[in-house]
Amino acid sequence: MTDVPAGWYDDPEHAGQHRYWDGDQWTEHRAPKEPPPAGGRSGSAWQVVPDTFSLLGRCWRELVVLVVPVALLLVAGIVILYLAFDAALSPGIGEILGRITEPGFDPDGNRADNRFVNSIEFEAGTGSIIGWGVGGVAVLAGTILTPVLMFVHLASVNAGVPIPVAETYRQTMRRLPRIVGIYLLWTLGMLLLLAGLGLVVVLAVWVSAFSLLIIAPALIAAIIAFYPFGYIAFAMLIVGPRETPPLRGAIDLVRDRWAPVAGRILALTLVVFAISMGINIVSAPLGAASGWAAVFGGVLFQIAQSSISTAGAVVIYDWTGGPVDPVLRGDSGG
């Protein structure tokens, strides 16, 4: 918090309260935040939907400018991967797809089709290997950057102090190593937990198959119960104060209002699912008309869907009273 003026800010140690910053360091003066009403800041979980589109409506132009470089990066990565695979296959991808999509193609019942399938060769040269590496890195970088960039910018807009696009990139790149590092630790922890649960299930089935009637519902209930905490923790990891442990902060925010938080997440998920189904229906003719049109359309549709999900997550996080890093609220130039 270098160069931040003295004042009350979100406590980096406890998400549910404010703490006084004297201009140089945190003092011991703390004050509780005003909690949301018992039913939330709105009477219905569905209020998250108009709030989400209202937030997008206030900054959609900036979001377009923000994600254009990332979209180009994603498309470039996909094109490089396509060319790398095309170079490794003989015949090329286009000829293979053209042949196997012909009406009546049947390698089991037609000798010519069978010979064509058997004639396909795959040989990975140096160029293909380099292409897979470069394309894979480009796609991975674009996939990671897209939601984080949007989340950072949307959080600043929602806080009433939107930061410029260039500053959004700068703050995202500063926060990205911590975000990726903690997320990888969480992923490792979840994999170890899943491995342990898998061992428990195997042992339980070995003892008695009927034990699944108890274990399966219990696991499903545990996942449902934890999901709102993980949802808010991920939001806090991206835009919360860097001094705040995101998982502990999420527990503080969610534990007393789990049901309304879960209701808002469910409402948003249903809307995003409906939009996704609509996108799939609309994009189907693109894929049939042109493979490249499907690539470009797929990237654009995916970014549009991601922007809705991200804006909704920002709205839900704000509803819980989640703290936003002062830097993202324009309180510091650092």
Task: Give a quick rundown of the structure.
The protein is mostly helical.
Task: Describe what you observe in this structure.
With 334 residues, the protein is mainly alpha-helical. The chain is globular, with a radius of gyration of 24 Å. The chain is built from 9 helices and 5 strands, in the order βββαβααβαααααα. It has one domain (7-329). The longest helix is centred in the middle third of the chain and has 43 residues, at 165-207. Strand 2 (17-21) and strand 3 form a beta hairpin. The strands form 2 sheets. Strands 1-2-3 form a 3-stranded antiparallel beta sheet, with no helix packed on it. It has a two-stranded antiparallel sheet with strand order 4-5. It starts with 6 loop residues before the first strand and ends in a 15-residue tail after the last helix.
